[in-house]
C-alpha cells in the first residue's frame, strides 16, 4: 500500500514541542503550553510517512491525541466577481450591516490571522499594518513568503482590517496594527491539511486573537486521487470518508489547543467559511451542509447573507443562494467590495467574504473586552455569539441557514 504523510498531534510525553516535518527541520514554531503551562498540556505537531495499516498501532500510543492523513484542501472560491462602484464613498454595505461603522472599537491592540492565498503587501489598504508573513505551501515555511498570486487572500484581509481606499471604508476592524498572513493555498487555490495545520499552530503561537479561514476540504479531489492510484470507486469513496473524518477530528483537537494555548489572556477564536455548494436558485431544497474544517468542533462556521429588495443593510437581508446550511453565525457575503490584488477595489460574493466580516467583528469584541478587563476564553465567544441578530433578515428565514444570526459590533 502506498505510504502517505500523516499529521500527528501528541499530548504529554511527546517529543519536545516543535512543529516539524522531514523537510522542515528549520521551522521555528513551538507547540508548547503557552502562558498557562501548568494548566495546559504540552502538544507536539509532527508529520510521519505511514501506510494506513500502521495507523491503528499509532493510535494505541497514549501520547497521540489525533492523527490524520494529509489530504487536499481548496479555496472556497467566490461565486461571482464584479467591478467595484467607483463612485461609492463611506463604509461598504457589509461594514454597515454589522454596525462596525458606529462602533467605538476599531481593533487596535488585537492580532488577527488570515490563512488563505497570501496578501498583496503593497496595497494601500494595508498601509501602516505590520504584516508577519509565512508561506506554508513551501516545505521550509518561507518566512518572507505569503505574497498573494490569486487575489482571494488580499480581498479577505481587506475586509478584516483594510484601511480606507478611494473614499470607501472596506475594513471592519481598520485599527488592527499587526496581522499574521499564512499562505496555505497556491495560485491555483489548492493546498493540504498538513500545511493548514502547521499554519494554524503558527498563528496561535504568534498570539493571534482571531484566525480567519476561507477554505475547505476537497473531498471530491481526494476521491479522484485515490481512484487514480488504482482503487475502485466504491473503495476510494470509503477510504476518503475515513480520511475526512480523521481530519475533522484533528482540526477539532487543534481548535481545543487554540482555545487553551493563550489562556484567558489571549484565547484564539477560529472562524471558517461554511462553503458555497448550495444551489437554492435552482431548487429551494438544494442545501448542502457546512463544509469542513468549519464543521469541526471548536470552529465558528459562517454563512452568507445579501441585500434584499430594499437594498438597505439594516432590513430585508436574504440568505445567499449558494451559502451552505447549518452554520454558527452569518455575515455579509454578496457583492462585497474589498481590496483587489495590484491595487484598487473589486466586489466578490461567497461565504469566503462573509467570514472576514465575522472575524473583524470578533476583533472588535476582543478590543472591547480587553479594554474593560473582562476578557476570558469564554466571554469573547459568548459576546460574539450573543451579538448575533435575525432582526435585519427577511421574515420567515430558515434558522438553520443563518445560525444565531448576523453578527453585530459592540456599540
TrEMBL record:
<feature type="compositionally biased region" description="Basic and acidic residues">
    <location>
        <begin position="13"/>
        <end position="23"/>
    </location>
</feature>
<dbReference type="InterPro" id="IPR000209">
    <property type="entry name" value="Peptidase_S8/S53_dom"/>
</dbReference>
<dbReference type="Pfam" id="PF00082">
    <property type="entry name" value="Peptidase_S8"/>
</dbReference>
<dbReference type="InterPro" id="IPR023828">
    <property type="entry name" value="Peptidase_S8_Ser-AS"/>
</dbReference>
<dbReference type="GO" id="GO:0008233">
    <property type="term" value="F:peptidase activity"/>
</dbReference>
<keyword id="KW-0645">Protease</keyword>
<feature type="domain" description="Peptidase S8/S53">
    <location>
        <begin position="107"/>
        <end position="391"/>
    </location>
</feature>
<dbReference type="GO" id="GO:0006508">
    <property type="term" value="P:proteolysis"/>
</dbReference>
<keyword id="KW-0720">Serine protease</keyword>
<keyword id="KW-0378">Hydrolase</keyword>
<feature type="active site" description="Charge relay system">
    <location>
        <position position="116"/>
    </location>
</feature>
<feature type="active site" description="Charge relay system">
    <location>
        <position position="152"/>
    </location>
</feature>
<feature type="active site" description="Charge relay system">
    <location>
        <position position="352"/>
    </location>
</feature>
<dbReference type="InterPro" id="IPR050131">
    <property type="entry name" value="Peptidase_S8_subtilisin-like"/>
</dbReference>
<protein>
    <submittedName>
        <fullName>Subtilisin family serine protease</fullName>
    </submittedName>
</protein>
<dbReference type="InterPro" id="IPR023827">
    <property type="entry name" value="Peptidase_S8_Asp-AS"/>
</dbReference>
<dbReference type="InterPro" id="IPR015500">
    <property type="entry name" value="Peptidase_S8_subtilisin-rel"/>
</dbReference>
<dbReference type="InterPro" id="IPR036852">
    <property type="entry name" value="Peptidase_S8/S53_dom_sf"/>
</dbReference>
<feature type="region of interest" description="Disordered">
    <location>
        <begin position="13"/>
        <end position="38"/>
    </location>
</feature>
<comment type="similarity">
    <text>Belongs to the peptidase S8 family.</text>
</comment>
Amino acid at each position: 500500500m502506498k505510504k502517505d504523510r500523516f499529521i500527528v498531534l501528541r499530548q504529554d510525553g511527546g517529543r519536545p514541542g516543535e512543529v516539524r516535518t522531514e523537510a522542515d527541520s528549520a521551522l521555528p514554531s513551538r507547540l508548547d503550553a503557552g502562558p498557562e503551562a501548568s494548566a495546559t498540556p504540552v502538544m507536539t505537531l509532527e508529520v510521519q510517512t505511514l501506510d494506513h495499516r500502521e495507523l491503528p498501532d499509532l493510535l494505541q500510543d497514549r501520547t497521540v491525541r489525533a492523527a490524520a492523513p494529509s489530504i487536499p484542501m481548496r479555496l472556497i472560491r467566490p461565486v461571482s466577481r464584479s467591478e467595484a462602484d467607483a463612485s461609492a464613498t463611506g463604509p461598504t454595505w457589509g461594514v454597515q450591516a454589522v454596525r462596525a461603522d458606529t462602533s467605538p472599537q476599531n481593533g487596535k491592540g488585537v492580532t488577527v490571522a488570515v490563512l488563505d492565498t497570501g496578501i498583496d503587501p503593497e496595497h494601500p489598504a494595508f498601509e501602516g499594518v505590520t504584516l508577519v508573513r509565512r508561506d506554508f505551501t513551501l516545505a521550509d515555511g518561507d518566512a518572507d513568503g505569503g505574497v498573494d498570486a490569486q487575489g482571494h487572500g488580499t480581498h479577505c484581509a481587506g475586509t478584516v482590517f483594510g484601511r480606507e481606499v478611494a473614499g470607501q471604508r472596506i475594513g471592519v476592524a481598520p485599527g488592527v496594527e499587526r496581522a499574521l498572513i499564512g499562505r496555505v493555498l497556491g495560485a491555483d487555490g489548492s493546498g493540504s491539511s498538513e500545511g493548514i495545520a502547521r499554519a494554524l499552530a503558527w498563528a496561535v503561537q504568534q498570539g493571534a486573537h482571531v484566525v480567519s479561514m476561507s477554505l475547505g476540504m476537497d473531498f471530491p479531489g481526494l476521491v479522484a486521487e485515490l481512484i487514480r492510484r488504482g482503487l475502485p470507486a466504491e473503495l476510494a469513496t470509503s477510504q476518503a470518508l475515513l480520511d475526512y473524518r480523521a481530519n475533522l477530528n484533528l482540526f477539532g483537537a487543534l481548535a481545543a489547543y487554540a482555545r487553551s494555548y493563550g489562556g484567558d489572556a489571549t484565547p484564539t477564536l477560529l472562524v471558517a467559511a461554511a462553503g458555497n455548494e448550495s444551489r437554492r436558485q435552482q431548487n429551494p431544497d438544494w442545501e448542502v451542509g457546512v463544509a469542513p474544517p468549519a464543521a469541526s468542533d471548536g470552529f465558528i462556521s459562517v454563512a452568507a447573507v445579501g441585500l434584499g429588495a430594499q437594498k438597505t443593510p439594516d432590513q430585508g437581508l436574504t440568505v445567499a443562494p449558494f451559502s451552505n446550511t447549518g452554520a454558527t453565525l452569518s455575515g455579509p457575503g454578496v457583492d462585497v467590495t474589498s481590496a483587489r490584488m495590484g491595487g484598487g477595489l473589486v466586489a466578490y460574493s461567497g461565504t469566503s467574504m462573509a467570514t472576514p466580516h465575522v472575524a473583524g467583528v470578533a476583533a472588535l469584541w476582543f478590543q472591547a473586552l480587553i479594554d474593560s478587563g473582562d476578557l476570558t476564553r469564554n466571554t469573547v465567544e459568548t459576546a460574539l455569539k450573543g451579538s448575533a441578530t435575525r432582526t435585519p433578515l427577511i421574515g420567515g428565514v430558515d434558522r438553520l441557514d443563518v445560525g444565531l444570526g448576523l453578527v453585530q459590533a459592540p456599540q
